[in-house]
Amino acid sequence: MISLPVVATWALLALLGRSFVIATPGSSPEYWEYLCGVQLPPFRGHHPYSRSGGTLPEVENSLYYFAQLHHEEVLYSVPTDQVLGDAEAVRVVLFGEERDLPASCYEDGRDLCRVYWNASETREACRGVLQGQRTPISAAELRTFRGAVLSRSKRAQESEAEDRAFLERFRRGRRVWLTLAFEGLYVTAWWAFVAWKLLPLPRPVSWRWQVGVAPLLLFLPYFLGYAPMTFSFGPSGGFIYPAYLMVASLPLHFIPCTRADEVVWNSLPKILSPLSQLPGHPLAASFMVCVGPVSSLIAGVSVVALFSLAIFVTRGLRVRAVRKVNNAS
């Protein structure tokens, strides 16, 4: 019985880990649109659900940018050489007679035209940086070019915070194997504890302890900072473990959090936070359900109390039945 969920968990972790990427492949035209507001011919728009976006630092010969969705930031990467290859075309468009007015602006209501007009400040910043420069942009100059453009467009301070968050997200993505190993080992240990009676091993505690603390133990990594956005934006921050939390939280809707949960939760160190694979900053916080350390323990104790009551009633009925038989004989 215990082997089935454990094997399924490890199999799903292997599949999800194999398909995990820090950023999906992007394109040079989209990068330049975010950086300079220029719509080169291959540009066809951004993510359909994006509210905004921007460029990010270069890492390992790739340039990154993001599309801001309601609950996450979608990361894209493009080789630096591809971006440099379009630099001269960007200059021509910026300083051309017709500038970079896209064809969609001649047709009312087109999204690309709205994107174009929203980027007017960014284009002016790029023109100011490139003004008077006649030589092609080198890879070294591209790194300082982005900073100069952001400074002129008054987004330097905001960009610094975005860059720090991105680099932290990138570092976490590079050690994703730790996240996968942690989830697999912890979920396996939890199943072993819950189903210990079914194992050919001596039982260290009674079934009441097993059932009573099982919800608390399942949610313990969450209380210690792992997958912290699970109940705000849906399963996130991990792979299989957040889905476990979502399913286990369904019966806990009837046990609300209290002030005691807040006190205990805030006192716990968030030592597992560095293992989370967070999806970037959300635009707004949502609320699904509150599961706290005290409420999860109350849930387990309640289940034990119900089972104990059922056992007590069943035994009482059996004793009465035996007495009636003995009296009749």
Tell me the domain tally: 2
Largest sheet, order of strands side by side?
1-4-3-2
Average pLDDT over all residues: 83
Taking the sheet with the most strands, its summary is: 4 strands, mixed
Number of helices: 14
| Global outline | elongated
Query: What is the H/E string?
Result: HEHEEEHHHHHHHHHHHH
Low-confidence stretches: none
Helix content: 55-70%
Structural class by helix and strand composition? alpha+beta
Give the distance, in angstroms, between the N- and C-terminal Cα atoms: 44 Å
Beta-strand level of the residues, as a percent range?
5-15%
Calculate Rg over CA atoms: 28 Å
Description:
The protein is elongated. The chain is 57% helix and 7% strand. With 329 residues, it is of the alpha+beta class. The chain folds into two domains: 22-170, no CATH class; 175-328, no CATH class. The protein is built from 14 helices and four strands. It starts with a helix and ends with a helix. The mean pLDDT is 83. Strands 1-4-3-2 form a four-stranded mixed beta sheet, with helices on both faces. A hairpin with a 2-residue loop joins strand 2 (52-59) and strand 3. The longest helix has 36 residues, at 293-328. The protein has helices at 3-19, 28-36, 80-85, 87-95, 111-118, 120-130, 139-152, 156-174, 176-194, 207-223, 230-233, 241-249, 259-267, 293-328; strands at 24-25, 52-59, 62-68, 73-79. Helix 6 packs across helix 7.
